[in-house]
Design a protein that fits this description.
The structure is a single chain. Strands 2-1-3-4-5 form a five-stranded mixed beta sheet, sandwiched between helices. By secondary structure, it is α/β, with parallel strands linked by helices. Helix content is 54%, strand content 8%. It has helices at residues 2-40, 44-51, 55-72, 96-111, 122-130, 151-154, 174-185, 201-210, 221-225, 229-238, 248-266, 268-275, 298-309, 321-324, 327-346, and strands spanning 139-143, 162-166, 191-197, 280-286, 293-295. Bound molecules: zinc ion. The site of zinc ion (ZN) has 7 residues, from helix 8.
């Protein structure tokens, strides 16, 4: 009898142990599964943030705060009464600082793989068809034609957001400057971004040509890239010890500054808008590998503007001619003015671009 009792106790004890072990293992599995889910589960963002804490998340939050602060303290000159001279045409738009912050936010979203693809729906297209783009677009961007630099995508922007000028090597010659002036004076974008990019083929070609490794170029390319040559030479002058392709990154940045100087030299409107604080011109370089835009010093924009303002060779509008216009610029402007007046008399009804009749 006692023997049986002991047997029963032993069996109960064994059963209890087995149950305990099974329960323990099962709970162990469960915790591992739930841990695994947290680290590698369905949500890629959670995974990304768990394994690689991202400084850009903090930067984006900071930018949101900056944007709100700037918007609430916007102290740009306001529009004066109707038709009064000196009225700020940008008074109804966001300030240059807010526009830059919006571009920065969009780029961070893009680089993090968190683009929201705004303003691309049917509602926005309807708005585009019925309203002036001047009421909406907030940036003019001069960028390279390179397929690796899709402007709206890298700033996570949509329809009626960005007035885009694209040309190989993001050079700033007459047509590009005219387009930028349109973006400023007619689309009323409070910011102009001159955007270079890493591994730019045009800048690379000029760097190699200047160092004696040039290739034969097609008929019209030399005239396109002649704007880049001074930038490459300046980069080499500033960095005398840097040789070969190592000069390319410096040349890419210098090409942005050269474009800015050209823009200020040839566009009195751009100089006026920046001087009055209506608009801002800013340089930037896009990294085609990481997706990040590096924003160049805004102080340098004003350094270049000051240098150009002191130059006798800058193009000026007629109102300034008495004080500081150089003779060649004045002669060119007068000739253009005469031609324009003749054209107006001949064809007062048309606003079409002039076409050479020959
Ligand atoms: Zn390029």
């Amino acid at each position: 009898m006692k023997e049986n009792k002991n047997k029963i106790i032993t069996i109960c004890y064994l059963v209890l142990m087995v149950v305990t072990i099974v329960m323990f293992n099962s709970s162990g599995d469960k915790s591992e599964t739930s841990h695994g889910k947290a680290a590698h589960g369905d949500d890629p963002t959670a995974y990304k943030e768990a394994v690689e804490p991202d400084a850009q998340t903090a930067k984006l939050a900071y930018l949101n705060q900056v944007l709100e602060t700037i918007a609430s303290t916007d102290n740009r000159p306001k529009a004066k009464s109707d038709g009064e001279e000196g009225e700020n045409p940008f008074a109804g738009k966001i300030s240059p600082d807010v526009a830059i912050a919006k571009l920065q936010q969009g780029n961070i979203r893009f680089a993090k793989g968190e683009s929201t693809h705004p303003n691309l729906d049917a509602e926005r297209r309807l708005l585009a068809a019925t309203e002036s783009q001047a009421n909406h677009a907030f940036a003019t961007v001069l960028a390279c034609s390179d397929s690796r630099v899709p402007v709206e995508a890298i700033f996570d922007a949509g329809v009626m957001d960005i007035f885009t000028v694209r040309v190989a090597g993001n050079v700033c010659d007459v047509d590009e400057i005219g387009s930028i002036e349109y973006g400023l004076a007619h689309v009323l974008t409070p910011v102009v971004v001159l955007l270079g990019h890493t591994q730019c083929g045009a800048v690379t070609a000029v760097c190699q040509a200047v160092q004696g490794h040039g290739h034969k170029l097609e008929t019209n390319i030399p005239k396109l890239i002649d704007n880049i040559e001074p930038a490459v030479k300046k980069a080499m002058e500033i960095n005398p010890d840097v040789k070969g392709d190592d000069i390319i990154p410096a040349a890419i940045e210098e090409n942005v500054w050269t474009a800015m100087e050209e823009l200020f030299m040839k566009s009195p409107t751009t100089r006026e808008f920046v001087s009055k604080g209506y608009a801002m011109v800013v340089g930037a370089v896009y990294d085609i590998g990481t997706g990040n835009v590096t924003w160049l010093s805004e102080d340098k924009t004003f350094e270049i503007l000051t240098k150009v303002e002191a130059s006798k060779d800058k193009v000026v509008i007629e109102a300034d001619s008495a004080k500081e216009e150089s003779e060649p610029a004045k002669a060119t402007e007068e000739k253009a003015q005469e031609e324009e007046e003749t054209e107006e008399q001949e064809a007062p009804q048309t606003e079409e671009p002039k076409v050479d009749k020959a």
